[in-house]
């Protein structure tokens, strides 16, 4: 598994410790960034990047709800044109 670099926006920072909503929003942000990084790793290219090593193409997202201890979190599960990508969070 690769290392991931996670970024949290300044708008999210003040509300992180103000109840479960802030923690759920942080978890949602982190997991969506991990899903994007996993797809980039799977395809061998970032969005809009053209490389010889590219293994496929992105084809949008589908929202999925993950129920956690801090509340429901909406994840944007990435899709590929050929359907070859399956994120580790949602095993088939």
Describe the structure.
The two termini are 19 Å apart. The chain is an alpha+beta fold and 92 residues long. It has one domain. The model has no long low-confidence stretch (mean pLDDT 84). The longest helix has 24 residues, at 20-43. Helix content is 26%, strand content 23%. β1 and β2 (71-80) form a beta hairpin. A two-stranded antiparallel sheet has the order 1-2.
Write the layout of secondary structure elements.
Elements (H helix, E strand, L loop, with lengths): L19 H24 L14 E11 L2 E10 L12
Antiparallel strand pairs: 1-2
Task: Describe, in short, the structure shown.
The chain has one helix and two strands, in the order H-E-E. The protein has one helix spanning 20-43, and strands spanning 58-68, 71-80. The protein has a two-stranded antiparallel ribbon with strand order 1-2.
Give the strand line-up of the largest sheet: 1-2
Shape: elongated
Radius of gyration: 15 Å
Largest sheet: 2 strands, antiparallel
The H/E string reads: HEE
Q: How far apart are the termini? A: 19 Å
Average pLDDT number: 84
Counting H and I runs of at least 4 residues, what is the number of helices? 1
Given as residue ranges, the uncertain stretches (5+ residues, pLDDT < 50) are none
Q: Give the amount of beta strand, in percent.
A: 15-25%
Count of the domains: 1
How many β-strand runs? 2
- Protein structure class: alpha+beta
What would you call the quaternary organization? single chain
